[in-house]
Specification:
With 609 residues, the protein is of the alpha+beta class. The chain folds into three domains: 231 residues, Nucleotidyltransferase, domain 5, CATH 3.30.420; 115 residues, no CATH class; 135 residues, Substrate Binding Domain Of DNAk, Chain A, domain 1, CATH 2.60.34.10. The chain has 17 helices and 31 strands. It has a seven-stranded mixed beta sheet with strand order 19-18-12-13-14-20-25, sandwiched between helices. Strands 1, 2, 3, 4, 10 and 11 form a six-stranded mixed beta sheet that branches. The chain has a four-stranded antiparallel beta sheet with strand order 24-21-27-28, with no helix packed on it. A hairpin with a 4-residue loop joins strand 29 and strand 30. Helix 6 crosses helix 16, helix 7 crosses helix 8 and helix 7 packs across helix 9.
Length: 609
């Protein structure tokens, strides 16, 4: 398939994808007329960081209004740390959120609502909805500024279809949450698509032969044959794993709901810091991380370690025998201050500390401002994380559910690490087709742009909960417990039965609607109650079982005339992209009533996934 043979399905001039990542965020876009040519922004003031994304960092003013995002947020906060602001306010009056997506992971995989909060670096709280709204708005407005400089002032948000990426492991309510944040950020609802990160990566791998960066690379081609079952392995700050199947129409269907593991680039960040902690002591590193006096030093330290992690992806690293790590002078300063020791040189102090540490006699030597170590020691920072990933995948591929997976698409920033690629090829290269796209860290962003142009490529995903109605059917002693028998209008009924409409794990598509016909149990009723329940089990039998929660009630009025007749009501649940719509249609009067379930209400306690 060529770009000429597949036209964009977008009706607007541009499709833009926005990705709020664990460590870095950014956007990408392409024009409908040349949709396979995806463009990204080159950010300023990043000597050590990749230029195509910015740190996921947000700074709010003391009144919680927007101050800055990304590198600007870090720089401004550092300046306030040193000198205060123009009004004499200290950093503790500001709100600084750094890598807030990771901080919210435990909450977002279970339950999120409008009142969900997030703590900043100083322990102060703000609503998570505000944090994401302001972050999305900044990236949207930055994009519009770039486009207007290129195309003129006439370009506006109405000319753009937006695609927002979210982790597949996040709960159903989080997709609703992110849509609401995007709408509050100024993105019209009818111009917004929510795409799961592994779906976006999958779309990119399907179409990456159209990307000029990949077009001459035959080794990384993804064979898009009908019925192929494949895995998307997204190795970024963490590792997310999802399994898909390619349908007859080349649409992508999710077969196994996503899982997430703590094996990614953030583990390497922690390993780096643990190395220095083993040498200088826990108190020194904690002081560097928490004392405002060392805020700038801490950020410089983080950036340096990030640059070393990126360096491990390079060809040059693969041929090194010795690795050098710079040792920040601030660690010596903090150590001597805490020990109330006399001034000693950096080299002498490091030699003394190494002699007392577990790295004594480990082939680590001190050079001016640096530690020189063998490649084996340096790789030990990476190996525990990579080993856990390999062990987990090995176990998965022995399971019948995953054993027939033919291809693994490997994306995410940490997947560019030479050590990760080497181990994956060593363990699975002979049995699986491993696909490593160029610029793997941009696969999700580019794929999200492509999905906005090719909406037909994503067809099904699986329901994260079981949805259904509460009913009181005729009592059948072979089906129901005796203690549930009730007499209603002279007839034996079973109380509180869970009638499934959608089953957890069932393949679904957006807009899928399921309906059933009901009759009021008592004809003198003037209102028919349709009670909607959700469960974290595949086959709940009763609505009062553990894991079942009532999420809404639709009241259907029955006029006097209708109460004297046998009335049929068609009750439906529509599985939308971010909302659950429940409707009731009176087959006699042709009247329809509906409600949209507010999954973001803090009053609804959804079960754990």
């Amino acid at each position: 398939m060529s770009a000429e043979s597949k036209k964009s399905t977008s009706s607007r001039l541009i499709v833009t994808a926005i990705d709020i990542g664990t460590t870095h965020s950014g956007y990408a876009y392409s024009f409908r007329s040349d949709w396979t040519c995806v463009l990204t922004n080159e950010w300023e003031d990043q000597e050590l960081m990749a230029s195509l994304k910015v740190p996921t960092a947000l700074l709010l003013n003391p009144d919680k209004s927007f101050n800055s995002f990304g590198y600007n947020a870090e720089k401004t906060y550092a300046d306030i740390t040193t000198d205060g602001d123009d009004d004499g306010r200290s950093l503790k009056e500001y709100y600084f959120f750094h890598r807030f997506k990771k901080m919210l992971k435990a909450t977002f995989t279970k339950r999120v609502h409008r009142k969900t909060t997030c703590k900043d670096k100083n322990g102060r709280e703000a609503k998570a909805l505000l944090i994401f709204t302001l972050s999305i708005r900044y990236l949207k407005d930055h994009l519009l500024g770039v486009l207007r400089r290129k195309l003129g002032d006439k370009i506006n948000a109405d000319d753009i279809d937006f695609v927002l990426t979210v982790p597949a492991i996040w709960s159903k309510t989080t997709k609703v949450f992110m849509r609401e944040a995007a709408i509050q950020a100024g993105i019209p609802d009818n111009q917004l698509e929510i795409v799961l990160e592994p779906e976006a990566a999958s779309v990119y791998c399907h179409l990456m032969h159209l990307d000029h960066i990949q077009e001459n690379d035959e080794t990384n081609r993804f064979t898009r044959k009908q019925g192929i079952k494949y895995m998307v392995l997204d190795i970024g700050g963490t590792t997310d794993i999802t399994v898909y199947k390619l349908q007859e129409d080349k649409a992508i269907t999710e077969l196994v709901a996503a899982s997430s593991e703590e094996w990614g680039g953030t583990n390497i960040d922690e390993a780096y810091r643990q190395f220095f902690e083993d040498i200088y002591g826990t108190d020194v590193l904690e002081t560097l991380n928490s004392d405002p006096e060392y805020f700038i030093d801490d950020f410089e330290f983080r950036y340096y370690l990030e640059s070393k992690k990126i360096e491990s992806s390079s060809f040059r690293f693969n041929h090194c025998t010795k690795i050098r790590l710079a040792t920040p002078l601030v660690l010596r300063e903090i150590f001597l201050k805490m020990q109330r020791s006399q001034r000693v040189s950096q080299n002498n102090l490091l030699n003394a500390l190494l002699e007392k540490s577990k790295y004594r006699n480990k082939n680590i030597t001190v050079e001016p401002g640096k530690l020189r170590m063998s490649k084996d020691i340096y790789e030990s920072f990476f190996n525990p994380t990579i080993d856990k990933l390999i062990a987990h995948l090995s176990k998965m591929f022995k399971d019948k559910l995953y054993s027939d997976i033919e291809t693994v698409l490997i994306v995410g920033g940490f997947s560019e690490c030479h050590l990760v690629q080497e181990q994956l090829k060593r363990h699975f290269g002979n049995t699986k087709s491993l696909v490593f796209p160029h610029e793997a860290s941009l696969s999700v962003l580019k794929g999200a742009v492509y999905s906005g142009h090719c909406k037909d490529l994503i067809s099904h995903r699986v329901a994260m909960f079981t949805f259904g109605f509460q009913i009181w059917p005729k009592f059948d002693k072979s089906k129901y417990s005796r203690d549930r028998k009730k007499i209603v209008n002279g007839k034996e009924r079973c109380r509180d039965v869970f009638l499934k409409m959608f089953t957890k794990g069932e393949p679904i598509s957006f807009g899928m609607k399921k309906s059933l016909f009901f009759k009021p149990m008592v004809q003198v009723e003037n209102v028919l109650e349709c009670c909607i329940f959700v469960s974290n089990q595949r086959d709940p039998k009763y609505t009062d079982e553990p894991g079942c929660v009532k999420i809404g009630t639709l009241l259907v009025p029955l006029p006097n005339l209708e109460r004297q007749k046998i009335v049929e009501i068609e009750e439906s649940i529509t599985y939308g992209e971010t909302q659950i719509k429940v409707s009731a249609y009176n087959c006699k009067t042709k009247e329809e009533h509906e409600i949209v379930i507010d999954l973001l209400s803090p009053d609804i306690n959804l079960p754990d996934n």
